[in-house]
Protein: Coenzyme A biosynthesis bifunctional protein CoaBC
Organism: Nesterenkonia aerolata
Amino acid sequence: HPVHDEPLRGRRVVVTAGGTREALDPVRFLGNRSSGRQGIALARAARQAGADVHLILGTLETEPPASDEGISLEHIESAQQLGAAVAEASAECDMLIMAAAVADFRPLTVGESKIKKTDDGQDPTITLTRNPDILAETVAARSRTGKGPTVIVGFAAETGDAEHDPVDLAGQKLQRKGCDLLVLNQVGTDLVFGREDTEVHILASQQSQQVLGAEPLTVAGSKTRAAQAVVAQASRLL
Ligand code: C5P
């Protein structure tokens, strides 16, 4: 292969994909409908670009990459496990792509035994607590230590409303999170979740705009196409 076909040759890329499960008791959990397709497509796009790829997988509604695809796999369940896996893997990587749908909340306590129906007919109450924001923490750790991924890519699913344009909301999220690129999935109709095709807007931080320009890049089509565009933009920041 000519070198320009493999812009990520010799680079290490960490991708997170899928959903998380937050245990309620030994048999029950809170989860989400992330299929993992977009994250897996990103891992494949990075591999195709020549990178050494580590894929951290939560819950999936699709097949993970096969062992002969040359992508190293790690399975996690909860947001806290994902946080630990990202902290470890991102210490030594050039690019982190956080495509996983991370639970914002988890049950405050996890029952040691199965939660039982009570005889008095009372409805049980589940108290939730905030999960750490892994993306924001990775960005903060990089600023604090000067180490970590050169390029950090976050994702956002926004519907927008009458007063708020989803792209504006995503721009605010990009600033809040402090990542270098933010990929906006416009959700609300029957778009995105579990689907093969998608439409994404790739937004660049102020600093990244010096390389990529100020205008968000919009890509419509397959999740593979969207993934290739995200990887191409992120590669230009290395
Ligand atoms: O704030 P919001 O959940 O919309 O942000 C989405 C982005 O933040 C995604 O890249 C997701 O992987 C990441 N995230 C995270 N830790 C959380 C929640 C979201 O890293 N607890």
Remarks:
- The chain has a mean pLDDT of 93.
- Residues 223-235 form the longest helix (13 residues).
